[in-house]
């Protein structure tokens, strides 16, 4: 209704501002002097002031009506998304905002009931968050609109008496009024808010408000788990350019001043990482690659961190999140990992197409923690005890939760972990409610978070039977590290873990050593391990090849 009113209000405003020339003509008639002329001039000035205030009021009403109508569309979207999520899980949202969960479906297998119950608890919390954010947005819009209307009704939109009536411009008065009538964008939840709360906040914003947040506050959007991937990417690309300018300026200054060498080296590393990310996000001709999404960007800490997706994480039916291991860096080998995961995604889509399934696959290379650098055998001792691994596991759990929370319809989500990244993946999957449906570790020294802790696949919050391990011949990390340092039970002996092959099988070639799991042979043939990873990502475990 408010959007419909904007047109008539605009027409009235245009008629009003057209009177400016006439007002200037009657303001100071040539040749008229005396008491009557002064009285007439004073009367005309009051009329002009009144019309200026009226122009400001109409302009303020026009802008606020349009903004409120736009914001209400965001509120309605938030309501629709909450209702869609509730319906897909056979839950209901009452008129008072309460969420009712009838519990797991009666046909849920016994060995799945615990995981399903945990997942439903997560969904119920997400729905409660969405209801809260929709109400917060609606209250914020209502409060802002009331402030504008109160100014209009009290005649205090602008101070028209302060204007120079000899240079009267009703359009200028209208512009001043419009400036006072903009709605505030609902502030985001706290930095440590659950991804479901972030998703609820973002869903309740209108498209205009989202774009305003991205343009004006990209730092509040780009790394906020629960925000849609495409919007995070837009924000992070803006941040990338801003950080590049800032680091370049600082580096040039330090070089001129012969500044601290350690700080110079730190800035040089940041710029190398920025250039590497820019290269991964663009085509060779310099154009932005529409098939890439920059889902996180963190240039703090000892080393830069990022997450880059290939495919559309917001719409793909199958999403895989890959966490690489030791010696991984943004400016070193991340580009190779992104390429490898792109290959896994394409192999998964090929399997789906052969089955007549047109579902899409997106893969994310998540380097959101700082892997250890392998220098000697002592580095292997620190793989699972380093603080960055624990923190990385917590961050990865939130990242996975954010992917699910950002979508009304959750994808089939697979967690992939290689080497030290499999420890981080294991820590993340110990968190309830990540929404991960399948997990594959390869080249893994273990999946426990602390030295000496044994565990089973059941300790991971993934449906029973949906955890997989791949160990290639000649891989010392997967073969010998679990037997010496024991980051939990050795994955190749772990109860409840499906063991998949890395040997040559049928048309597929063998993988060897620690770094060939996602390999494609020079003749274009996938390795058996890559085929197995892709089959799990595609949700087709029946196509996997078991280990001998």
UniProtKB/TrEMBL annotation:
InterPro entries: AB_hydrolase_fold, DUF1023, PPE_sf. The lineage of its organism: Bacteria, Bacillati, Actinomycetota, Actinomycetes, Pseudonocardiales. Residues 92-112 are annotated as: Disordered. Pfam families: Abhydrolase_8 (PF06259). It comes from the Bacteria. Residues 305-482 form the DUF1023 domain. This is DUF1023 domain-containing protein. It comes from Amycolatopsis jiangsuensis.
